[in-house]
Design goal:
432 residues, alpha/beta, 5-stranded mixed beta barrel, 5-stranded parallel sheet, 21% strand
Length: 432
């Protein structure tokens, strides 16, 4: 049996070890510049900023205290890519190492945020977010579909709110993954399934809060397009009030939280009952007022002389009819006389016009006859001229066309002379 003393053991307390680690980290690493993507950004009422800084390999918690934020020149959000300068230390209560930020500058949008903005612009340019596409919510839905995780506080909170506001609603849950691989496809398939049922009134699609990565399924194009093609109105309820997702823009209504969506989808039953009671009372008052008005009108009419002496009214209308008949007969007779007078006047004008035209035609005809007589051959002969023809009947116009000894016939105004040519004088010789 060995008699050597037992080895001495150093046993640390948790706090002691944590402080030792803190001293080592602060001493060995100290102040650094660090670049990464902002996630899980928290803004408590103290004004400090707490967030996670990460890349595709690891993450580290960061604290940016209010007193150091004077140089912050941009509105920091989840997904922003930043560079921070600070001290690496250990938060002893949780045993987590972190960086205490002294300075921060924007290094460009993170990859997820850039993908978010790119998809948002693409769908917006397609008109997928237009207000004209938004469908109104039903006032009193009977069957409400919910697309969310079947576990966790979100579904319990929504069911609690719906049961409190309107206990006899029919709620149908489509259980889906709300983050991780395949979540977006499950959400889109659930939306499509509800639209094929034919018995739903409205849908709520959403989940609780989380980082940009946690909410990413609701930023996928497949979900946005499923919401856009839905014939059922959809409320998008993703994350907290400060979280915005692509599904929020595509949906018919955005709710700041899932619980708020349950409040927006239907009013309180008591409010409906109170409104119905109020409307019922107003209707009863209106009907009673209308009944009294009709009664008063009936009483007023019953006291009228028309009902007391109906024969007088008949006589009055008969007199009016007789008067109208007389007026009509007088008007017709006057119209007939006027039409007959106009016909007679038209006939007289036409007869006179015919006589004038006949006289004008006769005078013109006589004038033309006189001109014709003046231009005729007989009138020319009576003025002392004659017509001489050769033996073959041709009119002789030139002395050169005849020879001595030829027979000529001369026609005078009175009588005809037969002659024989003895001497011929042409125009040239006559001129000599």
């Amino acid at each position: 049996m060995s008699t050597s003393p037992a080895p001495t053991r150093k046993v640390y307390g948790v706090g002691e070890l944590t402080r030792k680690i803190k001293l080592i980290i602060e001493g060995e690493i100290g102040w650094v510049w660090l670049e990464g993507e902002v996630s899980n950004l928290s803004r408590p009422s103290s004004g400090h900023l707490y967030f996670t800084l990460k890349d595709d390999q690891a993450q580290i918690r960061a604290a940016f205290f209010r007193g150091k934020q004077r140089g912050l020149s941009f509105d920091m959000k989840d997904g922003h890519k930043v560079r921070v300068h600070g001290q690496i230390t250990v938060y002893e209560r949780s045993g987590q190492y972190q960086i205490i930020v002294q300075d921060i500058e924007e290094a460009g949008a993170g990859s997820l945020q850039a993908a978010f903005e790119a998809l948002k612009k693409k769908l917006e340019d397609e008109g997928l977010f237009d207000a004209s596409r938004k469908k109104p919510l039903p006032m009193l839905p009977q069957r409400i579909g919910i697309v969310t995780s079947p576990t966790g506080a979100v579904i319990r909170d929504m069911l609690h709110v719906l049961a409190r506001r309107f206990p006899n609603l029919h709620i149908i849950l489509a259980p889906v993954k709300v983050q991780g691989d395949g979540a977006a496809e499950q959400i889109a398939a659930a939306i499509d399934h509800f639209n094929t049922r034919g018995d739903m009134d409205v849908l709520i699609v959403g989940r609780g809060g989380g980082s940009l990565e946690d909410l990413w399924a609701f930023n996928e194009e497949v979900v946005a397009r499923a919401i856009a093609r839905s014939s059922l109105p959809i409320i998008s309820a993703v994350g907290h009030e400060t979280d915005f997702s692509i599904s929020d823009f595509a949906a018919d209504l955005r709710a700041p939280t899932p619980s708020a969506a349950a409040e927006l989808v239907i009013g309180r039953k008591e409010d409906f009952e109170e409104a119905l009671t109020h409307t019922s009372r107003r209707l009863a008052r209106s009907l009673n007022t209308f009944r009294l008005e009709l009664k008063n009108r009936f009483l007023s009419c019953s006291r009228s002389w028309v009902f007391r002496e109906p024969d007088h009214l008949v006589r009055q209308y008969r007199q009016r009819i007789e008067g109208l008949k007389r007026d009509m007969a007088t008007t017709l007779r006057g119209a007939v006389r006027e039409r007959q007078q106009r016909i007679d006047e038209s006939g007289m004008r036409a007869k006179h016009l015919i006589q004038v035209r006949r006289q004008e035609t006769r005078s013109r005809l006589e004038h033309l006859k006189g001109q014709l007589r003046l231009l005729g051959p007989r009138a020319v002969l009576e003025r002392g001229y004659s017509i001489t023809r050769t033996a073959d009947g041709k009119i002789l116009r030139d002395a050169g066309q005849i020879q001595k000894g030829k027979q000529l016939t001369t026609i005078l105004a009175k009588g005809v002379i037969e002659s024989t040519v003895n001497r011929i004088e042409t125009e040239d010789r006559h001129g000599e």
